[in-house]
UniProtKB/TrEMBL annotation, chains A, B:
<comment type="similarity">
    <text>Belongs to the peptidase S51 family.</text>
</comment>
<protein>
    <recommendedName>
        <fullName>Cyanophycinase</fullName>
        <ecNumber>3.4.15.6</ecNumber>
    </recommendedName>
</protein>
<comment type="function">
    <text>Exopeptidase that catalyzes the hydrolytic cleavage of multi-L-arginyl-poly-L-aspartic acid (cyanophycin; a water-insoluble reserve polymer) into aspartate-arginine dipeptides.</text>
</comment>
<feature type="active site" description="Charge relay system">
    <location>
        <position position="132"/>
    </location>
</feature>
<dbReference type="InterPro" id="IPR005320">
    <property type="entry name" value="Peptidase_S51"/>
</dbReference>
<dbReference type="GO" id="GO:0008236">
    <property type="term" value="F:serine-type peptidase activity"/>
</dbReference>
<dbReference type="InterPro" id="IPR011811">
    <property type="entry name" value="Peptidase_S51_cyanophycinase"/>
</dbReference>
<dbReference type="Pfam" id="PF03575">
    <property type="entry name" value="Peptidase_S51"/>
</dbReference>
<dbReference type="GO" id="GO:0006508">
    <property type="term" value="P:proteolysis"/>
</dbReference>
<dbReference type="GO" id="GO:0008241">
    <property type="term" value="F:peptidyl-dipeptidase activity"/>
</dbReference>
<keyword id="KW-0378">Hydrolase</keyword>
<keyword id="KW-0720">Serine protease</keyword>
<keyword id="KW-0645">Protease</keyword>
<feature type="active site" description="Charge relay system">
    <location>
        <position position="201"/>
    </location>
</feature>
<feature type="active site" description="Charge relay system">
    <location>
        <position position="174"/>
    </location>
</feature>
<dbReference type="InterPro" id="IPR029062">
    <property type="entry name" value="Class_I_gatase-like"/>
</dbReference>
Length: 267, 267
């Protein structure tokens, strides 16, 4: 649970973070990246509109005072062997993944030389941030799609291997705004014994070692599946309603901290 | 918790129940009302379209074989003194509240002679059913409005006294379909130490004594606030995000039973 204390922090954002106003969430990312001395690499792999999306983050991070902001665009897997991109990562003090489709991040980057460079920088203490799709890809197993505002069934969620920056965790984004409790619970029944984190829009967790802290407008919904006393997964068909008894729930707004190892809020 | 064992059952439906097909939910209501010998009173107080809505349930209940179905329309408080309506209730073996606006049910009926007649029949063992607004009005304190798909804040919910057929319980309807976890949690923080029941569409709980059983397509989300270890209600302003730690959650589809006294699923 959590990440090694020597590794850089993770800033996992539920999407639709403020980029023009106070930028409460992005501000924390830039601070962790070195503040006025930050060199930020913006990874646009997830989006089909890398130029527009890249431009938005260049503007936001520069306005907050980052020293340099470079877009690392990967529109196909081959782009993740490009030396220019790898060089940008090697110089970066903060690496930020934009929104889009989380499957593209895994497909274009995972296991590539660019991926190795990112992991190396993370091990050296560089912060990795991601919003929406860039948040979804953080765990070992990621939610790639499924129904919003539905009760839990196997049909309600589809999953695939993620980037694995934050193990033993399930992440869902736009959580309250899209009513995604059902699909997060379905994901947890399919991959039990992990914590599910539902992250609201304009809200983030900042993970350092075994703990995370919440920043932003909304809240984090922590679903602790480890206390479950019963589920009906055995023999369940795809469209049948899931039963799940005894899971624990924590709703944590800005300022609250949670220990990923003990599964308890730090009060 | 629960209702007295001598009282009639309660059938609390999350709205949008099937009325033209298998009628899995309404079928159980008619069965509890006496099956082929059922005399059903349809209460249309909640709706601004009492004739159309009444007609829908007359058709559905007759198709399922009820012996008689009568609409008791109350479009203002004065109508709840009408002897004809009271007589219909006195003869009824099942009383069903339609959807609409739950505030109208309380405003037009609560504390009236019609209300006394309904309570008397319930004490004598007659089943009371309700869908959507007719479900919302069941508890002592009812949710009358608020935001769907939002994270919990005091703003997210507005409450008022309900009819009190099922005490110490909070009910929300169209639960998964409208992503209402946030507002149910907000309601529970405002009125703690009760169970919150989120009822999906075309899904119902059948309450008998201390237990309920689930029927229908979706699931019941039980939120047990009594295990909560922390909330931030003290000093909280209306638009600020609620914190709530350590509540227990059970997702119960069709066939599952739950004990309202022990707060435990009957497995």
């Amino acid at each position: 649970m959590g990440i090694k204390p020597t590794h850089g922090a993770l800033v996992i954002i539920g999407g639709a973070e403020d980029r023009d106003g106070d930028c409460v969430v992005l501000r924390e990312f830039v601070r962790l990246a070195g503040g006025m001395k930050a060199h930020i690499a913006v990874m646009t792999a997830a989006t089909g509109h890398p130029e527009e999306v890249g431009e938005v983050y260049i503007r936001a991070f520069k306005r907050l005072g980052a020293e340099s902001v470079e877009v690392v665009g990967t529109e196909r897997r081959k782009d993740s062997e490009c030396e220019e991109g790898i060089y940008t990562i090697e110089q970066a003090t903060g690496i930020f993944f934009t929104g889009g489709d989380q499957s593209r991040i895994v497909e274009f980057i995972k296991g590539s030389p660019l991926c190795d460079a990112i992991r190396k920088r993370h091990q050296e203490g560089v912060v990795i941030g991601g919003t929406s799709a860039g948040a979804a890809m953080m765990p070992d197993e990621m939610i790639v799609g499924g129904a919003s505002v539905s009760n839990p069934s196997i049909n309600a969620v589809s999953m695939a291997p993620g980037m694995g920056f934050l193990p033993d965790i399930m992440v869902d984004q736009h959580f309250a705004q899209r009513g995604r409790l059902g699909r997060l619970l379905a994901a947890l029944v399919l991959h039990p014994a992990v914590l599910g984190l539902g992250i609201d829009e304009d809200t983030a967790i900042i993970v350092k070692g075994d703990e995370f802290e919440v920043v932003g407008q909304g809240a984090i919904t922590v679903v602790d599946e480890s206390t479950a006393t019963h589920n009906n997964l055995e023999g369940l068909l795809k469209d049948e309603a899931i039963a799940l008894c005894g899971v624990k729930l924590h709703i944590l707004p800005s300022g609250y901290r949670f220990n990923l190892k003990t599964h308890l809020p730090v009060l």
